[in-house]
Amino acid sequence: MYFCYVDDSGADRGRTLTGLLVPEEGWSDLLHHWLEGRRKLEQTWGVLKNTELHAVDLVKGRGRPCATEEQNNSFGRQARIAAHDLMIRHLARCESVRVLTVAGGTAQIATVYRSFVDRLEAWAFEHDTRVMIMFDGQSGPDEAETMGQEAAREAWKQAIRGAKPYRDTHRSLPLASRRVLEDPIMQDSRYSQFIQAADLVGYAAFHHLMFARPEVWPKLTPMGHMSKAYRRLTGHWLTGHGTDGIVWVDS
């Protein structure tokens, strides 16, 4: 069985979903390489190990992720790009991890998600395996115990409603033959290292795709550094699924 950690990227009328697929027996190996990268981030630039890595903030210079103000002031554009690349290189050291990106010309992530699940279903059938999806999103209120009963109940309702389009996609799969199991498990990226990993890969895949489809994002300029980072994972792209590990679907 595989775990698939999924996050979205893109902008305007073009959205992407990137999944990191890891077999159950490779999960510890992937975590080992990722945490080794986090340790190097802290040793080199002072980026705290428990600080959320969000690709847009990291690469575009937002936030103060380092332990001291001196380190934050030194953590400029080139250092941030190097930090992103370092983490991608550490992911690539896990031999069993696989990458799938599905993209479409739509602002609706749920539309792309249906195609993403269809691709996973086909791949899992081909490899006689099964997949559980962990998707970036709120599973419920962070501090339910400190909220009033009514506020907590409403927060839970909102989280459940927000997951409905993705839950419906899973429940529409044929029960007798489906390979993507259970409902999607919503995980807040702040507390999931592998959702953060999917975010870093997804942001790189988005820039790589912009070079191929500039007409979809005419107002945006792709970054060559991000495309290069994505190509470090060439050996991990799902073969037979799209070009450069990216499937474009007509919405």
Largest sheet: 6 strands, mixed
Shape: globular
Mean pLDDT: 92
Task: Record the strand order, biggest sheet.
Answer: 5-4-1-2-3-6
Give the number of DSSP strands.
6
* Uncertain regions spanning at least 5 consecutive residues: none
Determine the N-to-C terminus distance.
Answer: 30 Å
| Structural class by secondary-structure content | alpha/beta
How much of the sequence lies in strands comes to 15-25%
Radius of gyration: 18 Å
Please trace the helix and strand order, writing H or E for each element. EEHHHHEHEHEHHE
SS field, number of helical segments: 8
Helix % is 40-55%
Task: Explain how this protein is built.
The protein is built from eight helices and six strands. With 251 residues, the chain is α/β, with parallel strands linked by helices. A six-stranded mixed sheet has the order 5-4-1-2-3-6, sandwiched between helices. Strand 1 (2-11) and strand 2 (14-23) form a beta hairpin. The chain is globular, with a radius of gyration of 18 Å. The relative contact order is 0.21.
Quick structural summary:
This protein is 46% helix and 16% strand.
Q: What descriptive keywords fit this protein?
A:
251 residues, alpha/beta, 6-stranded mixed sheet, 8 helices, 6 strands
